[in-house]
Amino acid sequence: MVRPIIAGNWKMNKTIPEAVGFAAGLRAALTSPPDREVIIAPPFTALHAVGEALRGSVIQLAAQNLHEAEKGAFTGEISGAMLRDAGCSYVLVGHSERRSLFGETDDRVNRKLISSLAVGLKPIFCIGELLRQRQAGETEAVVGGQLKEGLNNLTAGDIRHLIIAYEPVWAIGTGQTASPQQAQDIHRFIRQWIAEQYGPKSAAEIAILYGGSVTPKNIAELLARPDINGALVGGASLDVDSFVQIVTS
Ligand code: PGA
Q: Any idea what the Cα angle at residue 219 is, between residues 215 and 220, rounded to 5°?
């Protein structure tokens, strides 16, 4: 059994005081450690302060992106080592907003996954199809392609440190969640794909999260599906009460 994971992706939201206030509130609300892994992904500017606020708690820190190079002349970018330095243990890689708004290709995503693992950051590797791809019956082909390209050159040993987040793009921020069965079907497909490439042990152990309009209302039925091991939550992770409800549901 994979321990469920709930990760909050704040995107470009919250100042440092707001972020630290959230962290303190979340910490106070989770008095008894939940039987879930809890991760929050603040914006870069708040990472260090939130990391300090979470020190000694069960809540883990994630960044939302990284640059694949170790260091150098990449104005405005942030490396995996810097994220480790700021207190992160996880990093989102290949979120659909990075892919669609900032032109991240599967190849770039692959390099970012390799760089994260090299510095001991656990990547949350995001994949998912567009609405027109789903309507054209291409969901499995698209997701399979993202897995193949994104995981190029990664070994079973690497996969052990990686989380997959399936986020159908049409469900992100739209209020239109995939039905638990639609999500389960693709999660099963992903797990089978991992089994074929890396063997049954890797497939059984890998956490596959669902993302896209997850709320306190729909989390329980999503988590009840056998291949859904948790959630990557955007909008509903911005409010402490709603995030706590999702974590403890
Ligand atoms: P949402 O975002 O929960 O607001 O749909 C999810 C995500 O982008 O990770």
A: 145
